[in-house]
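Inputs:
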Amino acid sequence: MRETGSVSSVISFCEGRADQVFGDAPLLRTAGLRQPTTLEICHEIERRGLADRNNAPIYVPELVDALRDFLLSSGNWVLENHREHRGHRENSNSLCPPCPLWLIFFAIIRVHPEKIKKSLR
Amino acid sequence: MDDIVLRTSNLHYTYPDGTRALNGIDFEAKRGKKTAIIGPNGSGKSTLFLHFNGLYRPTAGEVYVNGEEITDKNIDTIRRTVGLVFQDPDDQLFAPTVRDDVAFGPANLGLSGSEIDARVEDVLMMLGIHDLRDRNVDNLSGGQKKTVAIAGVLAMEPDIIILDEPTSGLDPESAAEIVEITEELTVAGKSIIISTHDVDLALSWADEIYVIKSGTVYRSGTSREIFGDKKLIDDTKLRFPTVTKTFIEFKNRKILDCTGCEMPRDVLDLVDGFDSNEHVHGRIDVIRIQRCAIDMAAISDAVQNRDIDRVGAMGTASKAAVLEIGITCDYSTDVIQSAISAAVRGLNVLVLVSGGMADLVLSRVSERNARDGQRIECDILL
């Protein structure tokens, strides 16, 4: 994202992808705009230390996916629907809490999340 | 005093061309409450509003204001009691300047010149449009015209305020300010009725919602009852508010155990549902700013030696005071929500407010404390 100019000390313009522009809360405030509700939810969760935000989800399913990854990896929530959890496991770094491997993954994710991401690429 | 301020009974209206706009509407608005009417385009919302202060007369059925049926005899009293802001401000504004337009209503109430001036200045300050007072209304933007139209009605100080699509065409900041003002008016005992397509607003704002479809009341209830009903949303071509959609997504995927959970009405409600952490709560201090006289020394004394992490300002006078004191304002829209969010995270917040908004802050914080078992301290310092 880059700033493209300013017409006064108060108003400034920028351009970028939707997730970049709407992810920048102070910029939106300056422009008299507000964040989409999905991002408000995401920021509130992040501010309370409940999740680390790596992206700016625009749609509700993206938001829920992003939070689910965190909820599963942190071990704070247990999925009731095991089948869905297994499907989820195939596509991400989260494992079902009762699985033995989950404990190892959980420890690594909490200590070195960046390594996990790298190894999955 | 009767709790119902406005009521319609089996209200029918047919336009001269034969279009049947209302087909037996039974509606009630309670004193001091916020009522939202939602429904698809052409469902009869605006036509219904035009009956509320006697601009339209029903083809059949009755409209009662404070228990009195609207008739030719009491129409003047009714129009002093019920203020209506049209959806299109061009239908409402006609005077050459903003000041003249806002003064028109109070002048027709027979008020003295000084009283009219005081009301006009007060309302222009409240809505943050005092710098427009000498402007020609034809040269204003759509959003500015809307705000002036609202100012004209507020200047008459009606007990019941009807706003047809009050936030449409406004930028988010102005829309949030209008919403805050309606909240302030409700705390002052006014009854507010709005129509809106903004389901996010209806969910968080309304005490009672009426869903109108094809000129009839399809359903009425609290916002949780209305937006908790998927069939109703599908049938009426509405959509779920984002907060509701997120909650439902969690519920459907069985990520959270939502058994017995109340549906959240706003972002804070939703996140409180996830948040099982024990937070050390911060404090919210409130300072009332008088619109005409800002006592800087008193404000400085009050905030001296207080540990303040965030500052919020609600209303034009408060925002001006923040600038004058020379402190950075962290929250200028959604101030109460932001302040509560910060306090939940252990931050101390100073909120500068205009007029009756102090009571609004106190009531919202105590509501949240009561509902969620939180203990956020909130005091009015000045």
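Chain B touches chain A at residues 171-174, 176, 200, 241-243, 245-246, 249-250, 253-257, 267-268, 270-271, 274-277, 279, 332-334, 341, 344-345 (CB under 8 Å). Flag for discussion at group meeting.
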